[in-house]
Amino acid sequence: MRASLDKLVSWTGLLVAALLLAAGGLLSWAYVFIGDQVDEQLSMQGITMPEGDALASLPEADAAALEPYAGSLLDTGPEAKAFANHYILVHMNASSDGRTYEEVSGEYISLSDEEKASDEGQALGALRQSLFMGNTLRGLLLYGYAFATIGTIAGIAALVSFAGAIVLLVLVGLGFRHAKTLAATEGAAVAMT
Q1: 35 neighbors 173 (Cβ within 8 angstroms)
Q2: For residue 161, which of 8, 13, 18, 46 has the smallest C-alpha distance?
Q3: Per-block average pLDDT, block size 10, for the chain (193 residues)?
Q4: Among residues 69, 68, 71, 73, which one has the least CA distance to residue 42?
Q5: Which residues, 6+ apart, have CB-to-CB distance to 100 below 8 Å?
Q6: Of residues 29, 142, 32, 137, the one with CA closest to residue 77
């Protein structure tokens, strides 16, 4: 009876191990696919990470965040995040005195047509357009970072799935061996009676 239970548990473990191997394979594919797509899409933009004087002009914390990537092609999620949050955003904040696109756009919209035609109105309109483009670029770069992070999580999950499958396969082997030993012991006990 106990040998049959061990076999049942071992077969169930074998099924779960097979599912973990399949999941690990799919997660590995997702990791590679996402990594390739992020690299390809970001590389196509041809953005070179700031270095030298471009870093020196930034606040110390922002320059420190960009320093590890200085001069390299922006082609990874972490680089995209650093460029979006420590380069583009810094310049947007400097040009708008810390005002958001929404605030600047609201100011521009509230101007009369005459005020929009003035030099100050034209400057505010240009700032509004610049902030809109900056926010759009930041958003796209941060999407790249988010997808790269999802890819990293898929890679970690794949490793965990493969490790879990290996542990289960070892336990399944031990379970079948134990069932065989029990079957032999039960058979010998029946023969003695």
Answers
A1: no
A2: 18
A3: 77 94 97 96 94 93 96 96 97 96 96 95 96 96 96 98 96 88 70 61
A4: 73
A5: 131
A6: 142
| Rounded distance between C-alpha atoms, residue 105 and residue 127, angstroms | 9
Specify the DSSP class assigned to residue 69: G
Amino acid (one-letter) located at 174: L
Buried b (16+ CB within 10 A) or exposed e, 56-78: eebeeebbebbeebeeeebbbbe
Residue appearing with tokens 């002009």: 57
Q: Show the domain range for 71.
A: 2-192
Question: Per the structure, how many domains does the chain have?
Answer: 1
